[in-house]
Amino acid sequence: MRVGLVGTGRIGAAHAAVVAAQPAVTELVLADADAAAARAVAEPLGASVAEDPESLLAPGAVDALVVTASTSVHAGFIVGAVRAGIPVFCEKPVAPTLEATVEVAREVEKAGVPVHIGFQRRFDSGYTYARQALRDGHIGQLHRVHLVTADRTPPPAAYVPTSGGLFRDCHIHDFDILRWVTGREVVEVTALGANRGAAYFVESGDVDNSAALLVLDDATLVTVQGSRYNGGGYDVRMELAGSDSTIGVGYDDKMPIDSAEPGVRFPGQEAWDWFWPRFAPAYEAEMLAFLRVAAGEIDSPCDVAEALEAVLVAEAADLSMRERRPVRIAELRPA
């Protein structure tokens, strides 16, 4: 299998290393707007370099394409790949806006070519266990859900204006994993945001702290909290409380919370610093799954239609925050 990869930044380089190590991959071709950066990643992996990223979209150029470039080019590479009959993996988001995401979804459906969008939490062992525990009845009737996503340090100022905002950039992972674990759909969102840190969030029209209340289609209440500033460490958790038990994802020995209870020493290790170490096994698992998708062995674990549902929740949260009112998903769903 010949695999192309566009975008050799931090995540792209990590995905490239996983792909290059697979026996089924006979050739890995890297491309980046900065050709020197692509060559630096390619050399230790024994990969080749395409000087023009667009060349990977030529029919027959590669058997599968991985897109880890900047958000602004995601839609173009997804559409270009499926039109050329090339299965494609793309990190979220599909596109910068809801409208553009809908257009990509239509193009993908028309082409009938597999697309896998990178929501890596679906491949994390904790979330996988929680999903199965809910389906097996271990939790009993689900009563409430709580999710947290908090970065230890904020992104660079230059990133924020193009990020899409805290709900679209960060919490979209919470919205996707909520749907995947519970098997339910969000019907209403009430969200708030605040600025507690650097001025560049305000200047970009964004917030750096968030809280939201979501209502699922079976009336289950879900709370979501987040921050760009969490000095204790990188904190990603999910609680599912039911009639029989409560399951907690992310409550490991590196969770960045110190117990205030006398005699309790938890956690016992240095906290997670950022997202890659926390989810490294999940990132590898999702890339291996994509190679199976490209080989025709399995269906896409998270296609564009699935990603669109998370986008709709993120859009509703952002609109709710700005208009200070509950927003129903039905208001935003395309006809």
UniProtKB/TrEMBL annotation:
- Domain Gfo/Idh/MocA-like oxidoreductase N-terminal, by residue range, is 1-119
Q: Which UniProt keywords apply?
A: Oxidoreductase
**Highest taxon listed in the record's lineage:** Bacteria
In its keyword annotation, does this UniProt entry include Transport? no
Pinpoint the GFO/IDH/MocA-like oxidoreductase domain residues.
128-247
What Pfam families is this protein classified in?
Answer: GFO_IDH_MocA, GFO_IDH_MocA_C3
According to the UniProt entry, its GO molecular function terms are:
nucleotide binding; oxidoreductase activity
This protein's record includes keyword Isomerase: no
Q: Which residues form the signal peptide?
A: none
The family line of this record is: Belongs to the Gfo/Idh/MocA family.
Protein name in UniProt: Myo-inositol 2-dehydrogenase/D-chiro-inositol 1-dehydrogenase
Organism equals Murinocardiopsis flavida
